From TrEMBL:
Catalytic activity: L-glutamine + H2O = L-glutamate + NH4(+); aldehydo-D-ribose 5-phosphate + D-glyceraldehyde 3-phosphate + L-glutamine = pyridoxal 5'-phosphate + L-glutamate + phosphate + 3 H2O + H(+)
Pathway named in the protein's UniProt entry: Cofactor biosynthesis; pyridoxal 5'-phosphate biosynthesis
Residues the entry annotates as binding L-glutamine: G42, E43, S44, R103, I132, R133
GO biological process per UniProt: L-glutamine catabolic process; pyridoxal phosphate biosynthetic process; pyridoxine metabolic process
Family of this protein: Belongs to the glutaminase PdxT/SNO family.
Keyword Disulfide bond belongs to the record: no
Active site: C74 (nucleophile), H177 (charge relay system), E179 (charge relay system)
Name this protein carries in UniProt: Pyridoxal 5'-phosphate synthase subunit PdxT
Gene assigned in the entry: pdxT
UniProt entry keywords in alphabetical sequence: Glutamine amidotransferase, Hydrolase, Lyase, Pyridoxal phosphate
UniProt GO cellular component terms: cytosol; glutaminase complex
Oligomeric and partner information: In the presence of PdxS, forms a dodecamer of heterodimers. Only shows activity in the heterodimer.
PROSITE patterns according to UniProt: GATASE_COBBQ (PS51274), GATASE_TYPE_1 (PS51273), PDXT_SNO_1 (PS01236), PDXT_SNO_2 (PS51130)
Length: 203
């Protein structure tokens, strides 16, 4: 896990339950040793600044460009995106997902919102999704697979149909926080992607 800011501990616990060894990444050396990276929820503008301060911005960009498996939740999704709307002018993007995200998209009406979502690849049972000052994906490029959209419910209102989980190649992102609900299926998806890589290396 990128361990500069945000809910790192919750992601570590989810990764361990999903069968991975979770290690904090704060230096380029630590980054070089991981098979995949989780970018936690928190505050994307702060994380962006800390990525620069800890000299991790370019190394993370390079590993993502080279195909490192990654998963970002909420603020992590914002960082992975190519373009952010309603971000700070100096906010850095990792450019690993060909999407336009809108920051604090739900937050204009409500700070948090919960919904049961069908998430492609996570099995038949819906995922109980907790959104906290969450972004949504306003536009997704051709190579981006949409994994989940906000369902049509009374609470969802205008947010219905908005894209809230995506995958492009080995990179996953959700606008919500599965690490907060004890549902490890999204983390299992990431671990599965990282394991495919290891299988290939061993062949
Ligand atoms: N609003 C936060 C941001 O812009 C994201 C919130 C979250 O990660 N729960 O980074």
């Amino acid at each position: 896990m990128l361990a500069l800011q945000g809910d790192v501990r919750e992601h570590a616990a989810a990764l361990e339950r999903a069968g991975a060894t979770a290690v904090p990444v704060r230096t380029p050396d630590e980054l070089a040793r991981v098979d995949g990276l989780v970018l936690p929820g928190g505050e994307s503008t702060t994380m962006s600044r800390l990525l620069v301060t800890f000299e991790l911005l370019e190394p993370v960009r390079q590993r993502l460009a080279a195909g490192m498996p990654a998963y970002g939740s909420c603020a992590g999704m914002i960082l992975l995106a190519r373009t952010v709307l309603d971000g700070r002018p100096d906010q850095e993007q990792l450019d690993a997902l060909d999407v336009v995200v809108r920051r604090n998209a739900f937050g204009r009406q409500v700070d948090s919102f919960e919904a049961d979502l069908a998430v492609a690849g996570a099995g038949d049972e819906p995922v109980h999704a907790v959104f906290i000052r969450a972004p949504w994906v306003e536009k997704a490029g051709e190579d981006v697979e949409v994994l989940a959209r906000v369902p049509h419910t009374a609470e969802a209102g205008d947010a219905a149909d908005r894209i809230v989980a995506v995958r492009q190649g080995r990179v996953l992102a959700t606008a919500f926080h599965p690490e907060l609900t004890g549902d490890d299926r999204v983390h299992r998806l990431l671990v599965g992607i990282a394991e495919e890589d290891v299988d290939l290396e061993e062949r």
